């Protein structure tokens, strides 16, 4: 049993939007439906959702603005057939994440589900003994209700592991709810976690359940928990100790039955020593821990995961299944994977799209150039290129003579342009936290660089791949 993405459909399901709903359901999503934006908003206040699909026939701008006022953070996709371009632009300007043309394309919906809620269908793919040991330990710990701290570099699969623990636990039939603590500013994060009562702040026109209540009877994953500010750390600690939460503006605490899993790519103990993370909270979250090795520490997984992603992306794109050639595999094994499984997934996605002929050959493998300033690249020993072809594919030689910061800035700005200004997606591809990305962009702007803003995306393909 795996956790499902929760999708809220706003609009009539008799027509093409219903087709979109059925595709989402066939891809494993749990559906909820509302006839209009105000009843949709009421559902978001109650049970929340991972993704909203809202028919442009309804007032998407009103919905998105009301959600912002009420501090409800959930991606909204506007949908419609032959819509008026201005209506789409208005919706996106107001904060809708994307536009889905109707009749719906099954692959696009799959990509949107994946972007909103992560890959949810499978247990972790693995072949390396190092990973087998982690999964064995995870299986043993899953049955208890103890808090688990999952550590590992960005993109190693911490969320995948957390879902796996939930699926193996006694709470498997309950909800699995994940929240990225780095992705939201403090006030939004507080409301997102604990919910609020009517009148708690000026936009709070109705009460709303936070992630704690949404996860009641199930599991709550707090991703990038090290990024939480001290005031919220105190509030979280109280919630864990008392098993009850204080909603914003609430007069009475609310009891919750939630298992907490926390994930971090930081050294939390070092954060404790530097007085940035509360020691008592650290011990609460870290009753037991699971450390996910970096991908370069489990080479047998590189091959297994590459084959898995090659098959998955071939199927998703309607392309023939191709195996990796020996040379292509050699390139993958020689790369240090600073962005870990996420980087491998993106690399194989590109390779599947570029491949021709019977196999995925080395030419189709485009590896991220190692700039030294990128994520964890500085910390790893970069193996010598396996062949002259490797160096060419990496394109590193063209960078010699340039400063690391300069190359890093170009990589970040290029990636952001490629993602049409979408910060979340860019941070994901770069393998850095959204907060690090924001700080860097702030710096670049201060230096006078032009930083791409979020563009109105008329073609939703930006979300795929
Ligand atoms: N063992 C695995 N099997 C299949 N897919 C995996 C595995 N590990 C990671 N992935 C895929 O790699 C991507 C990154 O995984 P995930 O989001 O769990 O990493 P993370 O460590 O939580 O990243 P971050 O620190 O940035 O939050 C996801 O698309 C996920 O589906």
TrEMBL record:
The modification 4-aspartylphosphate is found at residue 55. The keyword Protein biosynthesis does not apply. Transmembrane segments: none annotated. Residues 124-353 form the Sigma-54 factor interaction domain. InterPro entries: AAA+_ATPase, AAA_lid_NorR, CheY-like_superfamily, Homeodomain-like_sf, HTH_Fis, P-loop_NTPase, Sig_transdc_resp-reg_receiver, Sigma_54_int. Pfam families: AAA_lid_14, HTH_8, Sigma54_activat. It comes from the Bacteria. Residues 6-117 form the Response regulatory domain. Keywords: Activator, ATP-binding, DNA-binding, Nucleotide-binding, Phosphoprotein, Transcription, Transcription regulation, Two-component regulatory system. PANTHER family: TRANSCRIPTIONAL REGULATORY PROTEIN (PTHR32071), TRANSCRIPTIONAL REGULATORY PROTEIN FLGR (PTHR32071:SF21). This is Sigma-54 dependent transcriptional regulator.
């Amino acid at each position: 049993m795996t956790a499902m993405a929760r999708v809220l459909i706003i609009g009539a399901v008799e027509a093409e939007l219903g087709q979109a709903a059925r595709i989402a359901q066939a891809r494993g999503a749990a559906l909820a439906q509302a006839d209009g934006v105000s009843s949709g908003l009421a559902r978001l206040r109650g049970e929340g959702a991972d993704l909203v699909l809202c028919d442009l026939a309804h007032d998407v701008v009103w919905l998105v603005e009301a959600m912002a006022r009420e501090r409800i953070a959930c991606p909204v996709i506007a949908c419609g057939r032959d819509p008026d371009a201005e209506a789409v632009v208005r919706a996106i300007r107001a904060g809708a994440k994307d536009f889905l043309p109707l009749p719906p394309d099954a692959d696009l919906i799959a990509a949107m589900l994946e972007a909103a809620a992560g890959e949810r269908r499978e247990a972790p793919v693995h072949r390396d003994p190092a990973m087998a040991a982690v999964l064995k330990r995870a299986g043993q710990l899953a049955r208890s209700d103890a808090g688990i701290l999952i550590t590992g570099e960005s993109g190693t699969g911490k969320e995948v592991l957390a879902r796996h623990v939930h699926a193996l636990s006694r709470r498997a039939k309950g909800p699995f709810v994940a929240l990225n603590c780095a992705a939201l500013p403090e006030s939004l994060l507080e409301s997102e976690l604990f919910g609020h009562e009517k009148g708690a702040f000026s936009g709070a026109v109705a009460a709303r359940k936070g992630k704690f209540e949404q996860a009641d009877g199930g599991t709550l994953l707090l991703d990038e928990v090290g990024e939480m500010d001290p005031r919220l750390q105190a509030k979280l600690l109280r919630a864990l100790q008392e098993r009850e939460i204080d909603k914003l503006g609430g007069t009475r605490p609310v009891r919750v039955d939630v298992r907490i899993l926390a994930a971090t790519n930081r050294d939390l103990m070092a954060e404790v020593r530097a007085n940035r993370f509360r020691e008592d909270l650290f011990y609460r979250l870290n009753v037991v821990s699971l450390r996910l090795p970096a991908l370069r520490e489990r080479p047998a997984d590189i091959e297994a995961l590459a084959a898995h992603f090659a098959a998955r992306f071939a199927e998703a794109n309607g392309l023939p299944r191709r195996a990796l050639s020996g040379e292509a595999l050699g390139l993958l094994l020689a790369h240090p994977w600073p962005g870990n499984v996420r980087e491998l997934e993106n690399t194989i996605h590109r390779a599947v799209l570029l491949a021709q002929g019977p196999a995925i050959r080395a030419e189709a493998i485009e590896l991220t150039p190692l700039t030294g300033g990128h994520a964890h690249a500085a910390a790893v020993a970069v193996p010598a290129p396996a062949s002259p072809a490797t160096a060419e594919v990496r394109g590193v030689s063209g960078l010699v003579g340039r400063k690391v910061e300069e190359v890093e800035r170009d990589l970040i700005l290029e990636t952001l342009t490629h993602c049409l200004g979408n910060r979340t997606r860019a941070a994901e591809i770069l393998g850095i936290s959204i907060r690090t990305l924001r700080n860097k962009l702030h710096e670049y702007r201060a230096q006078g660089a032009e930083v791409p803003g979020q563009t109105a995306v008329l073609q939703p393909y930006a979300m795929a791949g």
